[in-house]
Amino acid sequence: MQKETREKFGLLLGLVGVICFSLTLPSTSIAVEYFGTTVVGLGRTVVAAILVAVVLIVRKEKLPSPRQFKSLLIVAFGAVLGFPLLTSLAMESLPVSHGAVELALLPLATAGFATFRAGEIPSRKFWISSVIGSLAVIMYALHLGFGQLQFADLTLLAAVLILGLSYAEGGRLAKELGSWQVIAWAIMIGAPFFIIPVGLNLTTEMLHAPIHAWVSFIYLAVVSQFLAYVAWYSGMAMGGIARVSQIQYLQPFLMILFATVFLDESITVFTVMIALIVVFSVILGKNAPISKKISVSEKN
Predict the structure, then answer these.
(1) What is residue 145's predicted lDDT score, i.e. its pLDDT?
(2) pLDDT at position 120 over 90
């Protein structure tokens, strides 16, 4: 596959991942009402681990090397433990639109960590587009009155930083281990530690939860926790971490759209206007040059 075609396909996979992730907060908001923070935040990994274990066994995948295992710990800490648990906690008290606005800062966090972990050097044009997108979502937050930080806000900001590191590390590792293998092994690392806390929080009342709550939880376990990451890490490995991360600017507005459809949250003209600005920043950043740091060995 030619480089240009590979990069375009990587961007497409990244978009698929973002669309799948955009249903995560709405699904979490629905599920957490009936199952609680611990079951929704950690239980999704326990369920996903069953699917992942079958896939790993059938494909007879080799165990990661000790060096790869260290990177997988970072991925597991962010994508398997930190982000699901923190967002589940936040969604107990915040509307999806609020969470969507704060998660819009994720591309900046991912690109920043990519600079250190993957050796990518975004250009000035890239950072300008990132600033434009960030300012747009900040304006949106101020307009809606989200200026004062609450505990739930802090948990979301922490989730952004943790997942940004996880995305950057996972995208780098996917180039050598494989895209779906990264999240698969991260799930297998985290799941054993989650069984006991999830089990202690299970109640018989959960069996009587409505069908939409169960559908939301299953979606979180199968798609948000595994399949979406397969597309996302594949996209970053093929299209570049910093560039593909720009697509995430679409995510908060897709979340708001899905919240409108599934949760009856309102959408305004101002929201559409901000979305258009953010889309423009994505297009600008997508075409920005991304360079790699040159090591001493490569120079010689």
Answers:
(1) 64
(2) no
Residue 174 lies in a domain: yes
Position 11 in a domain: yes
Q: Residue 157, exposed/middle/buried by CB under 10 A (0-12, 13-18, 19+)? A: middle
Whether residue 82 lies inside any domain: the answer is yes
Are 39 and 206 within 8 A, CB to CB?
A: yes
Sequence-separated (6 or more) residues with CB below 8 Å from residue 234: 10, 13, 174, 179, 180
For the chain, the straight-line distance linking the first and the last C-alpha, in angstroms and rounded, comes to 29
Q: Which among 258, 174, 272 has a CA at the least distance from the CA of 219?
A: 258
Residue type, 105: L
Domain region containing 138: 3-293
Q: How far apart are CA 125 and CA 111, in angstroms?
A: 13
Residue 126 CB neighbour total at 10 angstroms:
23
- What the block records as the tokens of 99 is 């969470």
